[in-house]
Design goal:
alpha/beta, four-stranded mixed beta sheet, 11 helices, globular, binds acetoacetyl-coenzyme A
Length: 261
């Protein structure tokens, strides 16, 4: 039995964090299963990933407080590294990852969502970094990703106050891209994932890499990253196919299908 359910819908992999009794809180076993699920993805087939939580109440209610309660300083550091390594795996996965945030995204839950490339949420979603109220700092990347995603000032306010925000405020500050009624969230996330999966796979991966690699570089270096990836697309058959498809004015041509070549 795994705490992560993996389901394939065409070229989209849906990962569901499944520990509903603890509102999908991340203990070591859940983290291990998440790492194993990510490692198991067949990237020759999968073109986009969606991550959500089981049930309609919680995405992930944070790292497991029971498990953390007795950690020593060394064990705490190791637990933080474990989470960071797995979330970095998501961030650096070659294909895009969408978080479908279906409820509480607190502490490690918000940090998991922030490691994904795109965040959509349900109307009942609640975001926050409650750690200072527990006597700790965020430990799975929250201090770094929140400041980069929203702004340093807003990250300071959320993290230092430990006050949660609801979906409309998360939308307003740019933490999520869109808010849906609960029953529409997963269909919307899958629809977006399938739209991404229909585009040229090499180009999609190159775009993720360009944005991810470039964002922390000075602009002159970042533009070189883009130039190299842009150039590399011209060595693919999908580029030749995609441009020929546009230039072909035949109204009866078949629907466009990229072959990932
Ligand atoms: N760790 C362990 N168990 C958790 C949990 C967590 N983070 N969040 C919820 N649970 C468990 C509860 O203990 C409860 O278990 P029992 O039924 O066995 O008592 C069950 O999930 C249901 O939770 P509640 O009864 O509390 O549900 P609620 O609707 O009353 O409240 C909630 C929901 C507001 C999310 C509340 O559960 C809560 O505040 N949870 C903790 C949130 C939190 O502080 N997260 C941050 C953790 S620290 C962290 O993540 C560090 C890091 O950066 C790595």
């Amino acid at each position: 039995m795994s705490y992560i359910q993996v389901e394939y819908q065409e070229q989209v992999a849906l990962l569901t964090i499944d520990r509903p009794k603890a509102l999908n809180a991340l203990n070591s076993a859940v983290l291990d299963d998440l790492a194993a699920a990510l490692d198991s993805l067949d990237l020759a087939v999968v073109r986009c990933v969606v991550i959500t939580g089981s049930g309609s109440k919680s995405f992930v209610a944070g790292a497991d407080i029971g498990e953390m309660s007795s950690l020593t300083a060394e064990e705490g550091e190791a637990f933080g590294k474990k989470g960071n390594d797995i979330f970095r795996k998501i961030e650096t996965l070659p294909v895009p990852v969408i978080a479908a945030v279906n409820g509480f995204a607190l502490g490690g839950g918000n940090e998991l969502a922030m490691a994904c490339d795109i965040r959509l949420c349900s109307e009942n979603a609640v975001f926050g970094q409650p750690e200072v109220g527990l006597g700790i700092t965020p430990g799975f990347g929250g201090t770094q990703r929140l400041a980069r995603l929203v702004s340093p000032g807003m990250a300071m306010q959320l993290i230092l106050s430990a006050k949660n925000i609801k979906a409309p405020e998360a939308l307003r500050i740019g933490l999520v891209n869109a808010v849906y009624p609960q029953e529409e969230l997963l269909p919307a996330a899958l629809k977006l994932a399938k739209a991404i999966a229909a585009n040229a796979p090499y180009a999609v991966r190159a775009c993720k890499k360009a944005i991810r690699d470039g964002i922390d570089l000075p602009m002159d270096e970042a533009l070189v990253v883009e130039e190299k990836l842009f150039g590399s697309c011209f060595a693919t058959e999908d580029q030749k196919y995609g441009m020929a498809y546009f230039l072909d004015k035949n109204k009866d041509k078949p629907a466009k299908v990229f072959q990932n070549k």
